[in-house]
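Dear colleagues,

For the upcoming journal club I promised to circulate an example of a predicted protein-ligand complex. I picked one with nicotinamide-adenine-dinucleotide because it came up in last month's discussion. The inputs are reproduced below in full, followed by the predicted structure.
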Amino acid sequence: MSKLKVGVIGTGHMGQYHVNVIVNIAQAEVTGCFDADPNRLAEISKRFDIPGFRDMDELIEKSDALIIAVPTVYHYEIAKKCLDRGKHVLVEKPMTETVEQARELVELAEKKNLVLQVGHVERFNGAVMELKKVVERPFLIEARRLSPFNPRIADVGVVLDLMIHDLDIVTNLIGDEIRSVSAAGTSAFTRHEDVAAAVLQFESGCVANISASRATQNKIRTLTITQEKAYIILDFATQDIDIHRMASQAYLMTREELKYRQESFVEKIFVHKDNPLRQEHLHFLACITGEQEPIVPGYKDVRTLEIAHSILKQIHG
Ligand SMILES: NC(=O)c1ccc[n+]([C@@H]2O[C@H](COP(=O)([O-])OP(=O)(O)OC[C@H]3O[C@@H](n4cnc5c(N)ncnc54)[C@H](O)[C@@H]3O)[C@@H](O)[C@H]2O)c1
């Protein structure tokens, strides 16, 4: 079967990882890359030995599919251009700045029978893929995604930058029927919110407590789930899942005092650890060739963005 011709638009921090992965995927032939910054374009084109296009339209024309890793404010405009020209699109998260833009892109892709995938790379984290097998009617979900400040992402706040990953994971895990949303946030370094905390109550009764920060002097990416017979701890960075289960609990009466004893054991789940970005690309290509169905349909991506915007509304009014 002939290889799919893939181009990369935007070769900054995330774009370089996309190039690094796609050049090593046998099913793809890299047409080249484009970046608005000619120095960056020259650097990446040289580092990976791929053509650097000075004209984005030419790269789009020569490709079957485009990976878009430009700042979020340009996602809509560039993804629309690619879809209009009949090209499949893998656009970085968040899909767009607004819900209306996302809806328009999803409808356009459907109308033209094109694949439009959002770069929610955590979906392809080995631990997240395993999680679906162990989660059963959770009561409480706590997600924490905390990072030190990095001035690179200045066009959107932490909700669209980081929290969107956890909104995507949580809603794909337990559904998106939400009874209430409450949230608060504050800015630390930018004009947007750099810290945000949201509490979502789902129709199932489950409560999700989601915190995101880009003002923390440590990098933490964890998800914990409390359900009837287990407490599950997922670490996105190490791709590990630990499940705590209660074995027994008892009160012990000694001569001096009453003691509480609790016995639990921890199960370590076997996780197949691959590069999640590579898995993301393989899924994108397999959806284009029809070998796989998108693991998350477009309308769900729109819904996740809607939830993010209801959190932003609570924060900014
Ligand atoms: N999936 C993830 O985990 C993850 C992680 C980081 C960033 N991202 C996303 O990737 C996107 C890019 O973020 P980044 O950290 O790589 O930013 P960045 O600033 O490092 O890179 C953006 C690149 O796009 C180029 N660019 C700007 N405007 C352009 C335009 N109109 N046309 C072509 N090129 C243009 C810039 O010159 C720069 O090289 C953002 O949407 C961000 O949310 C996703």
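Two points we might discuss: The chain has two domains: 4-119, 123-274+305-316. The pocket of nicotinamide-adenine-dinucleotide is lined by residues 9-15, 34-37, 40, 69-72, 74, 92-93, 119, 121, 152-153, 161 (CB under 6 Å).

See you all on Thursday,
B. R.
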